[in-house]
Write a structure and sequence with these properties.
This protein is mostly helical. 75% of the residues lie in helices and 0% in strands. The chain is built from 6 helices and no strands. α2 runs antiparallel to α6 (126-147) and α5 runs antiparallel to α6. Bound molecules: ascorbic acid.
């Protein structure tokens, strides 16, 4: 076998394997629902910990807030792959699928807002953190209002 052919065959196999894994991950709609809800649960936990600081219920600790903001930012890209066709259910309203462009825009608004929150958290300026937290919370709420079952 020529070297080029070996390389082509190997990368085709690698692609097939990764496509297989991506598919297998959500073989059942319930798997996708569980995945996205789990991601939101982790995000909510860390976001809530920052919220307690912002509200003055917990003293500000730079490392804690920075860690939680990094978790939220890192997780924020994950849920969307689990809203694929045929995964209707859970707390998602049908508008997620019937108005996909609006849902995508709302998801991107949140992702940008939590990146800003993470930047503020890493810099350690509490006033910027408070401001960015407010914007991020509004982005969470905006999407819930339009796309999450009450
Ligand atoms: C949270 C959390 C949300 C958002 C949202 C902000 O802590 O779990 O979903 O904040 O309530 O409005």
């Amino acid at each position: 076998m020529k070297v080029q052919k070996i390389i082509l065959t190997t990368s085709a196999a690698a692609l097939a394997i990764s496509a297989g894994i991506a598919f297998a991950q959500f073989q059942k709609p319930e798997d996708a629902i569980k995945y996205r809800q789990s991601v939101f649960t982790v995000m909510s936990n860390s976001f809530g910990k920052i919220g307690a600081v912002v509200k003055g219920e917990v003293p500000y600790n730079k490392d804690e807030v920075a860690k939680n903001a990094a978790i939220v930012a890192m997780m924020s890209g994950l849920p969307w792959q689990a809203f694929g066709p045929g995964t209707e259910g859970g707390k998602a309203q049908s508008e997620v699928w019937s108005d996909g462009a609006k849902f995508k825009a709302a998801s991107e608004k949140m992702q940008l807002a939590v990146v800003d929150l993470n930047k503020a958290a890493q810099s350690g300026d509490l006033e910027s953190i408070k401001k960015a937290f407010g914007t991020a919370g509004a982005a969470c709420k905006g999407c819930h209002d339009d796309f999450r079952k009450k």
